[in-house]
Structures are given as structure tokens and as C-alpha cells.
Amino acid sequence: MFKKRKGVSSSNRLTHIRSLISHKKPKSPISEQYRTIRTNIQFSSIDGEMRSVMVTSTLASEGKSTTAANLAVVFAQQGKRVLLVDADMRKPSVQYTFQLENHIGLTNVLAKQTNLASGIQESHVDNLWVLTSGPIPPNPSELLASQAMESLIQEMYKQFDMVIFDTPPVLPVTDSHILANKCEGVLLVVRSGQTEREAVLKAKDILQKQQGKLLGVVLNGRPQEEGNYYYYYGSGQ
User: Fold this and answer.
1) Which residues pair with 82 in a beta bridge?
2) How far apart are CA 26 and CA 21, in angstroms?
3) Could you give phi then psi for residue 211, rounded to 5 degrees?
4) How many CA atoms lie within 13 A of 16 on its CB side?
5) Residue 237 contacts by C-beta under 8 Å, 6 or more apart in sequence?
């Protein structure tokens, strides 16, 4: 159905392995925490299955892209058809995580230079497909706010059971603000010992003002005494 393009070579294979721990080490305590997040997402929708989740953070380097990628993996492990979309058109990284090309992607589809089927790539994970960002555009916010984006999301729903968007941080730019109310749920990733409380509260306020459904907060980088759990799910309400 979708084109399979040759992946790019990676000089940092160890980083790639750590980033996709839910695929490489599915029985690890960290992988179990991703499955816990998955379960909480599924229970957060009362009227029906949630079809899209946006993953963001307050600022850069808090682990949002790693969280988005691993969530995509654990949903795919359930047998669901999952699409991971790199909507961070300012600093894309999904192509590195999955070792894919990024010559064609989301920007090309939104600009009507190609269609969704031609832009999507197969990943090495069963049931998981990826739409990379594509070339970095001069107007990411405008593209995400376009009618083309609205139509594209509806097209994605017809072909996939779950769509996960990796978006830029909330505070520096407006891209995630725009997508917040287009997706059915939002996860906010924060890093223990780095993210300031005021920044988290400000990000939460912004997302809720945009009528985004904040599902919860993922606390990243906090080792616990037993089990070395690094992620947990907490209510964002």
C-alpha cells in the first residue's frame, strides 16, 4: 500500500537502540511504562477509541520525540495500524530514530506535491508506518493551520487505527498550539530536574486555552528506587 524506501545510514546506532527501547527490549521496565501510558490513553476515551494523540513538551530536549516513537511502537504491538507523523517541521528527528529517508514527507503532502500514500514509509516495526517531516518549510505554523492539514488528518483516520504526532515544544513556537485542538488527545512530556514548574503550568494553560484535551504528563528521566522506571503517567487535569 505504501512505498518502502531505503533507509539512511546512521552513525549513532546505540542512540537508535536506546530511543526505541520498547521495540528492542519489550520486556524492560521502561517498556512496561510505555504500555502503562498506552493503557491510560485508551481508558481516557469514554465514547470510543481515541484515534490521534499529539506528543509535545514545554521546551527542547525533554524527550518528546522518544516518547512519541515508543508510544507508536507499543500501540503497533497491539496489532493496531499506527502512523507516526513527524509534525516538528523545525527540528525533525523521526527519520533518525527509524533510519528513514526524509526527502519526501509531511510538508510535501500538505503542499500537494505528493499524496499521503506516496509520502508514508514502512518502518522496521510491524504495523507501524512513518510520515517524516519532509523538507523544512519557511512557514510551519501556516501549513499546520491549513485546511489541507484538516483534510489530511481525516484521510489518516480512514487508513490507520492510531495516529501519533510528534510536535515542537509548546513555549518557543505556536505549532503545537495549532495541532492541539485538531488531535483527540495531548500528552505533555517534562524532564525531571530540568523542566521548571512555571514552564509546565504555562504550557498546560496554553494547551487548554487552545481547547486541547490534555490527557496527562509524562515525567521523563526520573529513576526510581525499584525497577528503574523512568516514565510514568499522571493526570493533566
Assistant:
1) 128, 162
2) 7
3) 65, 30
4) 14
5) 214
Q: Is the dihedral of CA 73, 29, 187, 16 positive or negative?
A: negative
Strand partners, 219: 190
Q: In Å, how far are 10, 29, 88, 156, 175 from 36, measured between CA atoms?
A: 30, 11, 25, 25, 28
Q: CA-CA distances (angstroms) from residue 16 to 22, 30, 82, 163?
A: 12, 15, 20, 22
pTM of the predicted protein model: 0.88
Rounded-to-integer distance, Cα 183 and Cα 22, Å: 24
Point out which residues pair with 162 in neighbouring strands: 82
Angle, CA 81 vertex, CA 96 and CA 129 arms, to 5° = 20
Answer whether 214's CB lies under 8 Å from 16's CB.
no
| Residue pLDDT, tens place only, 202-230 | 999 999 999 999 999 998 877 655 444 44
Residue 35, SS3?
Answer: helix
* Extents of the domains making up the chain: 13-235
Q: Which residues of 84-115 are buried (b: 16+ CB within 10 A; e: fewer)?
A: bbbbbbbebbbbbbbebebebbbbbbbeeebe
Neighbours of 78 (CB within 10 A): 13
Which cell is 86 given? Answer: 513527524
Cβ contact 100:8 at 8 Å: yes
Could you read off the pLDDT of 50-73 as tens digits, one per residue? 999 999 999 998 999 999 999 999
The domain 13-235 is classified under which CATH number: 3.40.50.300, 1.20.120.530, 3.90.25.10, 3.10.290.30?
3.40.50.300
